[in-house]
Amino acid sequence: MAAKIADALNVTVDYLIGQSDHLIMDKNLVRRMEDIEALPSEEKDKVYYFIDMALAYNRTKKAFAH
User: Fold this and answer.
1) Do the beta carbons of residue 14 and residue 20 sit within 8 Å?
2) Would you say the C-alpha torsion 41, 42, 43, 44 has a positive or negative sign?
3) 50-63 pLDDT, tens per residue?
């Protein structure tokens, strides 16, 4: 029931029941996060490493753009 309501509102069930402060409306992002969570630990660590690297690069790029 909660999943159907969350889907209709385009939010996650966690957001709907107050377990998350973040509203994620991009279903592809949620699906990717679920896929990453299903990976073996070693593979998951690699994915997180590359995500962290990309985020750090963009923060640095933004900081030096001003």
Assistant:
1) yes
2) positive
3) 999 999 999 999 99
Q: Residue ranges of the alpha helices (H) in 1-66? A: 2-9, 13-16, 27-37, 41-64
- Rounded CA-CA distance 53/60 in Å is 11
pLDDT band at 21 (very low <50, low <70, confident <90, very high): low
Q: Which amino acid is at 65?
A: A
Gap between the Cα atoms of 33 and 63, Å rounded: 27
pLDDT of residue 24: 66
Asked if 11 contacts 25 with a C-beta cutoff of 8 angstroms, the reply is yes
